[in-house]
Structures are given as structure tokens and as C-alpha cells.
Amino acid sequence: MEKSKVLDSLGIQDVNFGATTGGSNGWIQTKGKELVSTSPIDGQPIARVIMADRRAYDSVMEKATAAFASFRMMPAPKRGEIIREIADVLREKKEALGTLVAMEAGKIKAEGLGEVQEMIDIADFAVGLSRQLYGLTMHSERPMHRMYEQWHPLGIVGVITAFNFPVAVWSWNALVAGVCGDAVLFKPSSKTPLTAVAIQNIIAPVVDKYGIEGIFNLVIGSREDVGEPMLHDKRIPLISATGSTAMGKHVGEVVGGRLGRTLLELGGNNAIIVTEDADMDMAIRATLFGAVGTAGQRCTSTRRIIVHSSVKEKFVNALVNAYKQVKIGNPLDESTLMGPLIDGRAVSDMENALAAVQEQGGKILYGGGTLTLEGLEDGFYVKPAIVEAENQYPVVQEETFAPILYIIEYDTYDQALAFHNNVPQGLSSAVFTSSVHYQETFLSHMGSDCGIANVNIGTSGAEIGGAFGGEKETGGGRESGSDAWKIYMRRQTNTINWGRDLPLAQGIEFNISGE
Ligand code: NAD
């Protein structure tokens, strides 16, 4: 699909407004600064957005507050029908939106389409969920009493997203929060504003049909005008924030300071353990996708390989061979496996990390450095790097959001597990092994300390059905499948006395004397 066709099909103009309460009439004539969205593919502008100023933010919040008051009255299965129709319009626009994701975020088109597929999958999941927002019933300790718990809509959910999953993360939050009866205030990364505008345009016919303006809101704006006001706003009971650990610590402090709820999805430092009896071919393929896919810009990207000393040489040789075959280039070309980094800052972060690891004692085994591609001279292309390192090096302990893979050697499995867990982050993890003992140890309480632990599957590419998120400095949040919906609702425990006496809990007697 050509660029102009993609933009037309998604209703992207040369200049777009950065705030809407949803639907075809919800766009607000914003008056903030202009934001130019440039493509990392060639450094050229795609289109512009006039950002939301403080007034636009306030008017969106007023509309969202009013909309929530009526939306929560709609039965959950009816809300599910709306999400089902959102899945339908996403299916129609999958090709265009997936292509725009590739253009704006720089991931290869197959991954852009995969991201939109994730939106469709979570929408389908949410439709089923709309009939399954179950509470528990309990046996009361008192006669003729009934106890149960129920889940009520929470309110307005603030959704702050990272550039690298510009559309899927919105859907994980917004579509589940939608069936839960909440309103959503979406603040995308300023690096990927157009995909956010496109989402609003795609769902506009559904919003119009059901008259739910104010439920799916968007505000694109600066930290001062939008970001910070969201964090401090007591009308927003939950902030779901995806991004770096530094950002998450700040969000946690500010929102925690007003005793608001947070769902934090932050950085990872994901490792694969390759044992002496691992299937090498599978381990190599999983490592390649995990470390080079999305140019190493996934929260679940593989950043460390912890490999047994007896197979290290064989593994590294095969991996270097595989890296040599990776075609780096325009992510819109079907044969490309690795596109550009998001911007110049990401390139210098990678260069700085490679300089640091060498100073700290590491050795580059393959790659590193920038690439200038014909016709794409202003794009941000790098060669993915493989580096021999030790786990305790300060730079190995950090997440560098780039395709750098550290190779760490081990002798005993206990040592491998210790290396594995000895980083501040705890998102995704994997072991490649044929041994049941190694496998089960990895999955036990003595094994991986991450939110996601896989066997003979790499660290990236999670399915929507499970709860997604990680421990330690990854933030502790869970979103997407399983029972992650509970964070978007408030739980209420109810006790009903259907007898004619008033017994107290714990057998307490509290009678007025003389009775
Ligand atoms: P980032 O931290 O720079 O920005 C993330 C979002 O936070 C953006 O929308 C940004 O505008 C916003 N933000 C920053 N400061 C804010 C403030 N004071 N108030 C309100 N909002 C603020 O991250 P990025 O570079 O866009 O994304 C890369 C990072 O995201 C990596 O660390 C990656 O691991 C992480 N990530 C995590 C997950 C996950 O699910 N765990 C998923 C994707 C990305």
C-alpha cells in the first residue's frame, strides 16, 4: 500500500488535531504546539499534529466524566457488543493500520500487522469476558446470611503508552476497560501520535452508532499540558503506564502520592538459558527473533544469553552465522527482517552501551555501528551486536533499547539461575533444554523470578490469553488476558441478612443491658 493511500484510508490529514472525545464529531480544535511525526525509515515527516493544551485536556476530562456516568449503566454484555464491532472495523483496516505502525514506529510490516492482529484478538477475548466478570460467593459464618463479591466499573482509566507498541497496548487496556464499563483517556508516545489518531478514526463509526462519545478519548500533548495533569488528576482512579523504568518510578510516586491505582509495564532485561542438552537449532532461531526482531526494541527482547560452557562456541558460531543473513533495511519491504531504531537518540544509546561494555571488560563478537542505506540516508539503521560479557557489568544490568545481545557463560545450572535472576528487571525469561529437571526447576519457585517464564520458546511474542507483565523494576503490573481485567474494576463485598436476628461476626455479643 502506498503512503498516501494508507493515510487516506485511516483519515490522517497533513495537519491533525491532538484531542478527541471519540466519534466523528469528537475532535477538538486544539491550540497546543505542533508535533511533527517523522518516520525512522527515512527521517522524513509523515504528518503533523496540533497537540492538546491544558484547556483541551480539561474539556476531554469533563466529557469523559459525564460519559462514564451513563456508560456504567449499560449491561456488560451490551458493552461487549460494542467491542465486537470494534474488532470488525479493526479487521477491515488491518492492512492500513499495520502499515502505518511500520511507517511510524519502524518495525517490519509483518510485525505491524501482527500488532493489529493482537488488537483483534484482545477484542475477541474482551467480548467473551463481557459475560464472565465473575465474583465469588462465600459461606457466611452467620446463619441465614449470604455473602458474595461483585465487580463495579472503576471510572476513567488513563492509558500512557510507549512508542514500540503504539496500537496493541492501547487495545489491551482500552478494550478490556471498555467491557468493564470504564472510560479511557489515551496518551500515546509523542514518537507515534499518528497511529493513535488512526485508531480514533477507525473506531469512530462504532462510537457514533452507539452514542458513546466520551468513552474512548485521546489526548496527544506535552508532559506539562497532559502527562503530569493526568498523573495528578484525582478524577482518574487508575493510571496504566507502559514505558521505561525511570518513567514508571515517577508515575508510581505521583499516583501513589494521591493513593491512586497504577498498572506499570516497564523495562525488561530478558535472558534465555541454553543448557548443554538444548536443541541448538531451536535455541538459535528463538534467540535471533528475540534479539533482532523489532530491532531489539521490545520490552521482551532477548538481551542476555546464559549458555553452558560446553556448547558456547558452537552456539555463538551458529548465531553469528544467522546474524549475517539478517536483511536490514526498509521495514516496508517484505524481505527485510530488521528495520531502523526509532531515532538518533536510540542510536547513540546503543553506541554508548557498546563503548561502556568494552570499557567494563566485554568483547564485541559481531556487529555494532551504524548503516547508511541508499535512498534512506536519514534513517536510523544499525548492525545488531553480539557481545561477550559478564552478568555483573553495570551496562549488562541495564536495559539498552537496541539490538545488543550479551553472551554470558556458565558451568553449573545453579550458577545459570543466579545470573538469570541477578538483574533489577523481571519481565520475560526462557530456558532451552531437553531436561525435565532443568525445565521444572526453571518454572519452580527456585527458578525464574520473572512474570513470564517459557520453556523451549523465546522471551518475546506473548499471546494475549495470559496475563502480561513482570516483577521487580518491570513494575508488577499485569494486563491483557487471564484475570487482568480485575484492575479495571472495583471490588465490593456484600453481606445480606435474610433472617430475623442480628448475629454479629466472630460471635460477639453486644446487647443493651436489661434485655
Ligand atoms: P518512555 O518511558 O520514554 O515513554 C513512555 C510513555 O511515558 C510515553 O507516552 C511518554 O510520553 C510518557 N511519559 C514520560 N514521562 C511522563 C510523565 N512525567 N508523565 C506522563 N507521561 C510520561 O518509553 P519509550 O521510549 O516510549 O518506550 C520504551 C520503554 O518502554 C522500554 O523501557 C520498554 O521496555 C518499555 N516497554 C515496556 C512494556 C511492558 O509491557 N513491560 C511494553 C512496551 C515498552
Structure report:
With about 525 residues, the protein is an alpha/beta fold. It has two domains: about 5-265 and about 475-490, 3-Layer(aba) Sandwich (Aldehyde Dehydrogenase, Chain A, domain 1), CATH 3.40.605; about 270-465, Aldehyde Dehydrogenase, Chain A, domain 2 (3-Layer(aba) Sandwich), CATH 3.40.309. Helix content is about 35%, strand content about 20%. It contains 14 helices and 25 strands. The strands form seven sheets. It has a seven-stranded mixed sheet, with helices on both faces. α9 (about 245-255) links the parallel β10 and β11 (about 260-265). α4 packs across α5, α4 (about 95-105) packs antiparallel against α7 (about 195-210) and α5 packs parallel to α6 (about 170-180). The radius of gyration is 25 Å and the shape is globular. The protein binds nicotinamide-adenine-dinucleotide (NAD). Nicotinamide-adenine-dinucleotide binds near residues 165, 227, 228 and 267.
Produce the secondary structure layout.
Layout: H1 3-9, E1 15-17, E2 19-20, E3 34-38, E4 45-50, H2 54-71, H3 76-92, H4 94-105, H5 109-129, E5 137-138, E6 145-153, E7 156-160, H6 168-180, E8 183-187, H7 193-210, E9 216-219, H8 223-232, E10 238-242, H9 245-257, E11 261-265, E12 270-274, H10 280-292, E13 302-308, H11 312-324, H12 344-359, E14 363-366, E15 370-371, E16 381-382, E17 385-388, E18 404-410, H13 413-421, E19 425-426, E20 428-432, H14 436-443, E21 452-455, E22 467-468, E23 471-472, E24 479-480, E25 489-497
